Amino acid sequence: MPAPYLLLDMPPADFTNMFDYQTKNMAAVHNSFIQGINAMVAHAPKITPVKVQPFMIFSLAVVETIHHHHDMEETFLFPELKKKLGAGVLSQNVAQHKEFVPQLLELKEYLAAVKAGGAHDGQLLVQVVHSSGDTMMQPVFSTSYTRDRI
């Protein structure tokens, strides 16, 4: 599915309720990832040479933030949820992360190469995002599925 990706619906939760906060916050964070990817796809073909470096910095920040977020989930959040909910509850999430990380790293390598002086090809960047979009975005979209099970 090509970008632009639709934002997740916000769960009917109250930020002031400590039990609802994590659910609503996770949806908001994942929506920021979706907006970042959408912005990359929307702007990549229109970037002028003078704006390539700022755009690469922005794009790398988006990709690195997504990667960091998922590393933190697997390192800290998932093990705690596993203790509370039992083994296997998050196995789909872990499998999705393992599937999309190589594609996320491929995108990061491309962005880093351009930032280091390589040629910027906006259409190629869009193609890279679109070719891995289904796999990269599945963990983002399945958050509501996991949230409903928890």
From TrEMBL:
InterPro entries: Dimeric_xanthone_biosynth (IPR053206), Hemerythrin-like (IPR012312). It holds the Pfam family Hemerythrin. CDD domains: Hr-like. Gene3D superfamilies: nmb1532 protein domain like. Residues 25-117 form the Hemerythrin-like domain. It comes from the Eukaryota. Coiled coil: none annotated. This is Hemerythrin-like domain-containing protein. It comes from Mycena metata. The lineage of its organism: Eukaryota, Fungi, Dikarya, Basidiomycota, Agaricomycotina.
